[in-house]
Design a protein that fits this description.
The structure is a homodimer. Chain A has helices at about 120-140, 175-190, 200-210, 250-270, 310-315, 320-330; strands spanning about 5, 15, 55, 70-75, 90, 95-100, 105-110, 145-155, 165-170, 215, 220-225, 235-240, 275-280, 295-300, 315-320. With about 325 residues, the first copy, chain A, is α+β, with helices and mostly antiparallel strands. In chain A, the strands form two sheets. In chain A, strands 3-4-7-9-8-13-14-12-11-10 form a ten-stranded antiparallel sheet, with helices on both faces. A four-stranded antiparallel sheet of chain A has the order 2-1-6-5, with no helix packed on it. In chain A, α1 packs across α4. The longest helix of chain A is centred in the last third of the chain and has 21 residues, at about 250-270. At the A-B interface, β2, β8, β9, α2 and α3 of A face β2, β8, β9, α2 and α3 of B.
Chain lengths: ~325, ~325
């Protein structure tokens, strides 16, 4: 059973994931990335190489775990957290831990080994967003989970270990640090202003200022945030205030798929398909009141390597002003 | 003038370092690492390639910025922050910024291009620690600076851009996020327990438990922390409670150099000279009372690549249990 352990001092939790344990000597080299279609476990006809699917979009007359699907969700074969068991939180002296209960799923975004969100048909991007929502709503029923992060690692430099296009969902038994910080600070702003959402303020102020906006459609904006940690970091923010990602209606999900694809296609075309990570920040699924929060998606390309200063301080040195990044991604020059 | 900008919401500050600005196309590739002695700006006889030295350990009869030094400190030629000017903190709407005032220095650890702390004579490691202290005490006089981080990037994978052995010092006009969090949590523990330092608790508890201890001498321990973010992460903790790194006396600095070298030589020998970052966490230099804090050094090897989950949550997945890492580094098997 993997363990979740809290730092002695700060709210920093880590997973001690013994099931993935490697011998010390295994850390000496970067893991190889199997990019070959010939052995890829996510390609059609190799459904037996993954755990059985928990969701698939496939023709009605096909059996589970056979080909012909156009999107497939399976449990991670090497999960960071396990679905079975109780959380069992214990504190003894300076040691604070709970069992590594959670869920870890893989959303296989396309049967096509070489597809990318930037270049696939828009309809397929919509299906990815639908799958995020479907899995989110299903796992939300499990009351042991307090938070769910949907994220994607694209390209070897992003930490991706397989090149077949996929996203991941990890459900955790507590609210992770960065989310807690956003919730705390959004709550403080809401209280202080007597009910204003700080993300609403960001959307309206940035739409007036214009210089950091990259893209806009009826329901969403893509902007380069005022204090980006990384060069070309972008956020996609819904214009309509809502704490919950899963509250989007069919139309909003279509517009979200549209702006997500267009944003990633700017990276693809203008930055030569860089490695990136994206993740959705949405309100926790613990049933509490989060009316002060506003869901959004953050994308961080991996163009620089944060070093000792960033590790030591949580304070980022970014050589690319967001106004310049936004202009370049907006205008293509 | 570079700018320090605070995230809209959280306490996350970034440097918008326009002086290092690159064209968007420059981000497409990893920067090359000049490892050649023939062009290295830190090698003796190339003193003119760096800004003039602010400290050097050299024979009394030699002139500044000439060879024969055995340790040299110079301003960073491409500083993240600039020494000139006022801080000038401004908040307008959701935009919060100050001028990028600070210091950014490079400690050239040895004239030998191929030296490493793990393998150089112990006497030289002592001189590095002396230089850290000398520069720290000098910069502490500048009341614009609230915090100073001494850190090292070793190896290309760590973010180091030059292979000649060097450390860095960055002084900032505010207390960075991770430090604030440690201070807050150490203060809470101190208040709650009526005056106990949580780091003292860690030292005594871990010395009883033994399983996470790697090395020990009269004044220090090296341990693999209970909830490490990274495989083989280690902390060096002084046994004597003191908030301030610069308070070490001559004997303590010698013992610190000794355990630092021995710790890094375990990495060197047992993990095949991996890239790593280390940094010293010490109390802020803003003149306030930090009696509840306890300085220490943290070392994080770069053996894994944190991905979207870590970026999105600040919650780390670590496949290597610290007890196993400690045993391996302690016993060599």
């Amino acid at each position: 059973m993997p363990e979740l352990r809290k730092d002695y001092i700060t709210d920093c939790w880590v997973v001690i994931s013994t099931e993935r344990a490697q011998r010390p000597s295994d850390f000496k080299k970067e893991p190889e990335v199997p990019t070959s279609k010939e052995t890829c476990p996510f390609c059609p006809t190799r459904e037996h190489m993954t755990p059985p699917e928990v969701l698939a979009y496939r023709p009605g007359n096909t059996a589970p775990n056979t080909p012909q699907w156009w999107l497939r969700v399976v449990p991670n074969k090497f999960p960071a957290l396990r679905v079975e068991g109780d959380v069992n939180h214990r504190i003894v002296q300076v040691f604070n831990k709970m069992n590594g209960v959670g869920a870890h799923e893989v959303i296989i975004e396309s049967p096509d080994h070489d597809a990318t969100i930037a270049t696939m048909p828009l309809k397929q991007v919509e299906e990815i967003v639908n799958a995020y929502k479907d899995r989110y709503l299903d796992l939300k029923k499990d009351t042991r989970f307090k938070y769910m992060l949907i994220f994607k690692n694209h390209g070897k430099g992003s930490g991706a270990s397989l090149s077949h296009p996929h996203s991941q969902l990890i459900a955790t038994p507590m609210i992770p640090k960065h989310i807690m910080e956003e919730l705390r600070d959004a709550y403080n702003y809401y209280s202080f202003t007597g009910g204003t959402c700080i993300y609403d303020e960001i959307v309206s102020t940035e739409m007036e200022e214009k210089v950091r906006i990259v893209l806009e459609n009826e329901y969403f904006i893509t902007l380069s945030p005022y204090a980006p940690r990384f060069p070309f970091e972008l956020w996609i923010l819904p214009k309509r205030h809502d704490p919950y990602f899963e509250d989007m209606d069919d139309t909003e999900r279509r517009y979200f798929a549209m702006i997500l694809q267009e944003t990633l296609s700017r990276y693809y075309k203008l930055l030569d398909n860089p490695p990136y990570n994206f993740y959705i920040h949405t309100a926790p699924c613990d049933g509490k009141d989060y009316r002060f929060y506003h869901w959004h998606l953050e994308i961080t390309p991996r163009l620089t390597n944060p070093a000792g200063f960033e590790r030591g301080t949580g304070f980022y040195i970014n050589p690319m002003p967001p106004e310049e990044a936004a202009r370049f991604l907006r205008e293509g020059k």
